[in-house]
Specification:
homodimer, 404 residues, alpha/beta, Rossmann fold, 2 domains, four-stranded parallel beta sheet
Amino acid sequence: MTYKHNFNPTLSDEDLFNEIVEEKKHIGYYNLVNQDTTAFKEYALSVKQKNIVVIGIGGSTLGTYAIYKFLKHSKMLTKQLYFLETTDPIDIKSKVEQIDLSDTLFVVISKSGTTIETVSIFKYIYSLVTLDKNNTLIITENDSKLNAYAKIHDIKTFEIPKDVGGRFSVFSAVGLVPLAIVGIDIDALIKGTKEIHDAFFRSDNDREIYTRLLKKARFLTEYKNSFNINVVFSYSSRLEGFNKWYIQLWGESLGKIDINSTRQGLTPIGIIGPIDQHSFLQLIVEGKRDKSVTVIKVDDFYSDLKIPATKLEGLEELDYINNVEFSSLINTQADSTIECIHNLGDIPCDVITIDGVSEKAIASLMYEYELLTSLCGKFMYINAYDQPGVESGKIILKEKLKNI
Amino acid sequence: MTYKHNFNPTLSDEDLFNEIVEEKKHIGYYNLVNQDTTAFKEYALSVKQKNIVVIGIGGSTLGTYAIYKFLKHSKMLTKQLYFLETTDPIDIKSKVEQIDLSDTLFVVISKSGTTIETVSIFKYIYSLVTLDKNNTLIITENDSKLNAYAKIHDIKTFEIPKDVGGRFSVFSAVGLVPLAIVGIDIDALIKGTKEIHDAFFRSDNDREIYTRLLKKARFLTEYKNSFNINVVFSYSSRLEGFNKWYIQLWGESLGKIDINSTRQGLTPIGIIGPIDQHSFLQLIVEGKRDKSVTVIKVDDFYSDLKIPATKLEGLEELDYINNVEFSSLINTQADSTIECIHNLGDIPCDVITIDGVSEKAIASLMYEYELLTSLCGKFMYINAYDQPGVESGKIILKEKLKNI
């Protein structure tokens, strides 16, 4: 008798950890925590322009936007950051009209160097203002055609390492350079990622983060057929960019065909509290039990903005909100949603509370999500770092455009 | 022998239509297509302030934002529209700082009149600038406590009809008054809704819209367990507000417990092309077959913005995009995604092409989605117009706040 199988065994904690340690040798994002940022910071200090326009899409912009959106109103930033991402003509025109192009640094970011949206917008901007070494920076792979262009025109470049995928690239030059230019403390970002990295990979007994992430990844993948939707419910409008970044990271990394040709994937949804209490919460509470929920809270908004005790005749029944700080209100709204979900008893729910509106806090959160995504990928027996499913659309597009 | 059952029979087309006609007698949104907008337009003309700030959340803002976002860069609007929705202190502060409050009309919108976010922000704004009949407008139900407040202070009000639910209220005073003030043609909006209404409810042989919506609603509800996620893939950044409005409409209307105590619900996701080709498309293509996809295209962007034939040395392989209009590029990107999905053969997909960036087009689209939501509600044997699931969270919140 012989026996063969193609089962995907459930990985033990130890096996999984060993696989991640092995993967770390050739998947570059893990190790960005130890990079030297001196060149990024020196370049940032040399930038004279007031406006920074990133031309890029997907992994070239989402992470940068997430961090910028989170911090921009809490830091004294000296420059404005804009993103030109889409081919929507009205969007391009309305954005360009509000920017003084003569006082702008254009940061063209494309890993492959031939992203169609990015090159299209690059060409359009070039028709409005000369793009040369004085107002252009290019961030791409070392051997891309965009890099060749930069070399010909003596345009400054930073490299996207080959082994760092687009959606895992926020803590490479892709995110760090534009963020450093506008005045974000990129060393504090790296510190935030390194804390999580070191805590995850330590081998002594204090393995809280490792245990927590492993448990979560195991749960989400083992119950992926019951709970095929993962809702991130972020209680701060500052996390809107993070939600979008998470959707790309989760969707594009895990939506894959596994080694047995079985379709895998967990569907990410990002919502914002309290706004989406008035939009999506009803569905979570009374709808089908197909969702897990992760609530993200911000412990300290560094704000003492308060609801004043204004007397509104007829509305006295709401006077219990008088003198409550808005930060306290929004966090109490989060707690009420958590308690409501907890009381239902049959919705998987976890709560992440980040320390505050700071570089370190957002970077730690994002690095933790990158690790979680890698762990889920391992449990699903998929490659979390490619995106073969979008290639056929690109080929169709090229054919259609050639025939216009 | 006796026989009893609690089956929910699949409704015949005729039964369903009769139920909708019956429902139309007491669900008000259907009939907003015939309202007289004279009072809204007269009031709009009388507004002198340059800035309009809507204070509201959920159904009080999402529809207005959807239409404003869609049209604002294509119309010559004379006033700026802002929304104060959330209790996030950084969001409130940063928005308020950019507005000249002394040249602002505040439009306070709350159906119940006691929405906690709305009253909190109202109180806060009142501490910055006196709110009285000269700079305040209130839109609420006639017997709400907010209405009582307005009466005491002689503040102008418009009514939200009792039989029009918040998320179905965009074509009532809730949406029409702020939109009229900033210069949107609200009669063209109403015309857009009326065309769909009349086409749907006509009884002769030309029932294209009725047949189409019925078929779609029947499919989505019959296959709700296989395809529990409905993705709206809108190919224009102008439709970002529409996507958010759709998510509330769909999620909050259909996420319900049916007459047999069974959980119903279809999960709405809104994504934007081409941006989310770089984020979510991989999951659609290779992930689990749990999604239907509706692609929305804009036929005419009224833009001739073109990709110039800029020569980029090294990037000549992309010269096939030279001289292509951006509107043509984005629509070709949509067509490529549609073809890619079609080629896969096992993803339910439909395509809506709206005429252009106009009042009539967006209003028709939104009214059609309202009808579709009502039809799905009927097929699911639920009440699409209430939201009982969010009440318990509100009670918990009140208790917690009283104990702060």
